[in-house]
Amino acid sequence: MRCLFRKITDLWSLIVGFFITGKYFCSPQLTVHYPRATVEPEAAESFRGPIELVGLPKKPDTPKCISCMICVMACPSKCISIRKSPAPKISAEEEKAFAEAEARGETVKRPTAPKNPSLWHYDYTLCSLCGCCVEACPVKSIKFSNDMYLAGTRREDFHQDLLARLSRLARLAAKKSADANQQPASEA
């Protein structure tokens, strides 16, 4: 009796497997044959590619990054390196004026270092795409890119300066919006 029940169970699982296979066999193909066809940009929105910096809303070529270094500490792969912008140099005359004002009891606001980074280096060859840096960023200045066609022939092609990439992407977006604004005027 036990043997008969086992054979019926095995047969049922075989029938269910055939139905699942038949359903997907008759559905349209989902594979994209890359050189002949590409994926639509809407499908790339869910792709998690290498990280990139987010620009300020009014100045897209300036990063939102405040050089807090939390992303560097959160990265388990140690693929991010950031250098803070240096404080402005104060001349001897300005330093003397600050000292005299402080001696008189006035509150003096000395120039401080800007919060923007001077270097933002990213090594994609080491990155595991874990997302720890994206989650740890307090100002949400890092996001995953949708660049699914990133390719290179050398390892150095994947060592990226994200500040230069941000300014390049901002220029491309500005050019694209300028071209879109000019096109309807030429058609009229």
Assign a percent range to the helix content: 40-55%
- Write down the overall geometry: elongated
Structure summary, number of beta strands: 5
Kindly state the mean pLDDT as a whole number?
A: 86
- Main sheet: strand order: 2-3-5
- First-to-last CA distance: 84 Å
The biggest beta sheet, please? 3 strands, antiparallel
- Written as H for each helix and E for each strand, in order along the chain, the element string is HHEHEHEHEEH
- Percent strand equals 5-15%
Query: What class would the helix/strand composition place it in?
Result: alpha+beta
**How many distinct helices?**
6
Low-confidence stretches: none
Radius of gyration: 28 Å
Q: In words, what does this structure look like?
A:
The protein is α+β, with helices and mostly antiparallel strands. The chain is 41% helix and 11% strand. It is built from 6 helices and 5 strands. The protein has helices spanning 2-26, 41-44, 70-74, 92-103, 132-136, 162-187; strands at residues 51-53, 80-84, 117-123, 142-144, 159-161. Strands 2-3-5 form a 3-stranded antiparallel beta sheet. A two-stranded antiparallel sheet has the order 1-4.
